[in-house]
Amino acid sequence: MLALPGQAIALAVTPEPAPAAAADRWPDALVRDYLKAYPHLTAAQVRERLDRLAGRKSLAAKWQEQLSGTYAGTWYDFGADVWHIQVTKDDASPAVAEQAAAIGQRAAVDVVRHALTELDATRQALQARLGSRTGSPTGLVHVDVQANRVVAEVDATAARSLAAADLPDHVELRAAKAPTETVVPAVCHDRYNCGQPLRGGINVGPWNTATGRANNYCSLGFTVRASDSTRWALTAGHCASLNQLWGHGEQQIGQVRDVRNNNTDAVDVARIRIANAYWLQAGGGYMYSTSSSTVDVDAAITNRSQIEINDPVCFNSRSYPANPPGGDNCGVVILISSLYRTMPAVSGVDMCGGDSGGSAYLKVGDARWAYGLVSATTARGTDDCMRQGSVYFSPLPDIYRYFDQSAAATIRVETR
Fold first, then answer.
1. Is residue 184 a contact partner of residue 200, using CB atoms and an 8 Å limit?
2. What is the pTM of this model?
């Protein structure tokens, strides 16, 4: 089942154009997932709500940038079709309500105490304070936008320590819960052989000098570009080892220069330097669709608050390409911060071994927004595949924060 997650300012915002109506814009399997959670809705009503998703995401991103000290996040009541917009100043209410109406979205503007920037700073400080405790199902810290507070799920020892500390009044301590599902990394199987450009969703692996090709191993998520003009390929950190030479098919990519997978936080990423001129002469910002076609990466999120409960998130990996004849491999966000390393959880998805590192993206009409990298799944069957299970992905904003702290250059996903 899906879970429901709570001076006058004028903003220069251009409303997103409404997408053309199309019954096949949203895969039937995805629509059925929503209908199970909201049986009072019709398929047409589900699609109408999803068609306004691009406008909601675009406005939220612009408000976060233009109202950073006032904006406190949004949450969407899918069943009632009401978008809750949270701000800390009442004089911001008319502007945001008017812009929501311009995209055809009914909205309720709530005035709260704490801006999203304040909550996120508190979350980071508290997570750092908990330190190594985050390696267990304890010490999970996340922002609860609806409640306008930071929630820390901690064990008894950490709770006693934090209770004696001078914590802000917008921090809530909760007893940690034990995981209810077995979670396994999504490694090994299948392969594709693609020419340039280097694209998300293809098989990548350590270079095998004996065979002159890459081993079948994991999936490529996105290509990224650094501010020093170097280019990189991203996959899951649990797939790779530092300084390994990686490739795809019969072409080398380059060496793994950065790996982060400490099994505590939500960052599970390896950064492979694109050093082969074969790949460098082609651009980036693509995902695999067929052996002769690609789809574009149109945008990339920058803040965790852009991931919301009930978002339709899809996955592009070597087992399930983007935009196949049957539709993208999509599910629904059921947890923004799960017990598995605080990663978002998406239900109703198919996934196989070897899909780790693949692209997680939001599909809004024909556009695809980068959300993160496949990290793990619920238990798979004897064929090493999972049907209609849950996928956990390493969110792109957490990966960006890690890059910003550890790399000299600014590194961001390439988009078209």
1. no
2. 0.81
3-state DSSP assignment of residue 13: coil
CA–CA distance, 153 with 133 (Å, rounded to integer): 11
Q: Who's near 266: CB < 8 A, 6+ residues apart?
A: 341, 342, 343, 394, 395, 398
The whole-angstrom distance between residue 404's C-alpha and the CA centroid of its chain comes to 18
How many Cβ atoms sit within 10 Å of the Cβ of residue 278? 14
What is the rounded CA–CA span in Å between residue 121 and residue 401? 12
∠120-336-319 over CA atoms, to 5°? 130
**Which DSSP category does 289 fall into?**
E
3 state SS of 34: helix
- For 51, the token pair is 């068609």
Please report the sign of the dihedral spanned by the C-alpha atoms of residue 229, residue 235, residue 240, residue 244.
negative
Looking at the DSSP assignment, which residues form a beta bridge with residue 413?
224
Task: Please write the tens of the pLDDT for every residue from 126-154.
Answer: 877 776 443 433 457 889 999 999 988 77
Gap between the Cα atoms of 89 and 113, Å rounded: 9
How far apart CA 307 and CA 266 sit, in angstroms, is 14
